[in-house]
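Quick question: what would this complex look like in 3D?
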Amino acid sequence: MRTRAVLVRAAAETFAEYGFAGTTVSRIAERAGLTLGAMYFHFKSKEELARLILTSQPEPVVPPLDSRGLQHAVDLTLAWAYELPGNPVLQAGARLVLEQRLFTEPHVNSHRRWTGLLLEDLEQARRRRELRAGVDTEACARLIVSSCTGAQIQSRPKTSYRDLPARVEEMWRCLLPALAVPSAAKKVRFGEERVRAASL
Amino acid sequence: MRTRAVLVRAAAETFAEYGFAGTTVSRIAERAGLTLGAMYFHFKSKEELARLILTSQPEPVVPPLDSRGLQHAVDLTLAWAYELPGNPVLQAGARLVLEQRLFTEPHVNSHRRWTGLLLEDLEQARRRRELRAGVDTEACARLIVSSCTGAQIQSRPKTSYRDLPARVEEMWRCLLPALAVPSAAKKVRFGEERVRAASL
């Protein structure tokens, strides 16, 4: 790994574990096995690293199976849920977005970008006639992001995120009858095979 | 107000503003206008105050209008959403439950108690034949708590919780077609009159 990538990973691990307030540049440098000088050569502050991690999301999440509309929205949230337990960059993002004072500008707000991606999927689902008449796609996209945020917060202390995929699937099973026409709801697939296909 | 109540309120305001890590006992005493000695006479640590605030929730939330089943579940979440912007104890609870390391035991976990209350309402709704066949009431109760948690987190930096009632109403409007039979869904009422009736 290049030094910069090593530093981003070390920062992500530190933010995920200690939050923004509990993280110091020297703690990051130490975890990266680098001197403070090397650290400051690449990043001028922990805030710069935090912003980089937040603005990079949700790019680390790419569902491996090709899908469209409703199934793509499901795959995106499942990929995130399966990826989170082992991905410090996603964990840091999930934690930093809660430290609200520093990271409220729209361009570092990952909730907002997630909502935009899900809205695109739901609009595509509408064009594919998967949605029930009268569904408010914007409201539903916000609801999905809110519930994933809430589920992630409850999942961490209980199971270190291990139960997150089950919570996301459960969310969809509750929501689908409101969102999708029965024929489209019946076709939606869940489970680890949606996100692990690429590595088989 | 008695000294103890003054201290709880001062602690709630401080936790809501600075989080658990950013709060010190002297900051609480100062805000309460009391000496450190007076503070320690009542509470031995900031942790004791934090636990008291968390275990007291959601008791501060009581919908003023009499209702049952689905409407009671709606009223409970609306009362919380309208109350939060002006209630430091609820705000502190909302923030402290995110500081996961310290407050993960079931009896201080307000998410868990909220889920239990909503489950009771949904089970009552089932007995009143308000629910669609096959609705998983436990999963739905968890989904409602997750989305309220997520909505609250996004609402604070954007609007200091002012848009929270609209977000909660939007959540219900998305969910109701999945939860309720059409006749019951149509009867559900929203809006400030559900929670302000008592003060009129």
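Answer marked as accepted. Chain A touches chain B through 38 residues (CB under 8 Å).
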